[in-house]
């Protein structure tokens, strides 16, 4: 059992090292010539890099032996269900939960709250992104069931995003496009995409390559739309507050 759990772990360690070594080299370059941080701070950073290395390695190993097989198995079972339309609410629920647990999303939300001085709370951002991704996963399930081409969603979605940019503030525009990137994190990619491929592989008339993939494109788009919509709501609230202030004065 132990050998099965750590099968291929050496290759994972190598991949993580290849990913982190350039960052470490850049850090030491800036430390020597520019930053010149105290030794205590450097030691703390090295401890963080050490924990990051092993954390990523164990996470990726867990993905290979757990998340991917589980997602494909769930997709295969759900795709053989008599009630295929239940995939839509199931997709919504899984999309919400996966985004809610996404580490990158929480980091972004924390930074947004910190930089905005609490004006944009973490909780509001978290629910906004989670609901947006949940809707995109539900639409992806609908796309698989009906065989709808991906561009039917992508082109109107980005046109709508461009329209929302016109009415949203620059702050929310920047946050929105960053949100699209962080939402496509390891939780979503490893589990839900594997499940979508499993579903598309067992539904008659569906091609796993054509119908199983493309979900990440929708996941990247949905937070942009949801955060821009949040920006519109904040803008309306600011205008109402300004009117109230003017009437009181």
Automatic annotation (TrEMBL):
<feature type="transmembrane region" description="Helical">
    <location>
        <begin position="150"/>
        <end position="168"/>
    </location>
</feature>
<keyword id="KW-0472">Membrane</keyword>
<protein>
    <submittedName>
        <fullName>Membrane spanning protein</fullName>
    </submittedName>
</protein>
<dbReference type="InterPro" id="IPR011435">
    <property type="entry name" value="UmpAB"/>
</dbReference>
<feature type="transmembrane region" description="Helical">
    <location>
        <begin position="12"/>
        <end position="37"/>
    </location>
</feature>
<feature type="transmembrane region" description="Helical">
    <location>
        <begin position="124"/>
        <end position="144"/>
    </location>
</feature>
<feature type="transmembrane region" description="Helical">
    <location>
        <begin position="215"/>
        <end position="235"/>
    </location>
</feature>
<feature type="transmembrane region" description="Helical">
    <location>
        <begin position="180"/>
        <end position="203"/>
    </location>
</feature>
<keyword id="KW-1133">Transmembrane helix</keyword>
<dbReference type="Pfam" id="PF07556">
    <property type="entry name" value="DUF1538"/>
</dbReference>
<keyword id="KW-0812">Transmembrane</keyword>
<feature type="transmembrane region" description="Helical">
    <location>
        <begin position="49"/>
        <end position="71"/>
    </location>
</feature>
<feature type="transmembrane region" description="Helical">
    <location>
        <begin position="83"/>
        <end position="103"/>
    </location>
</feature>
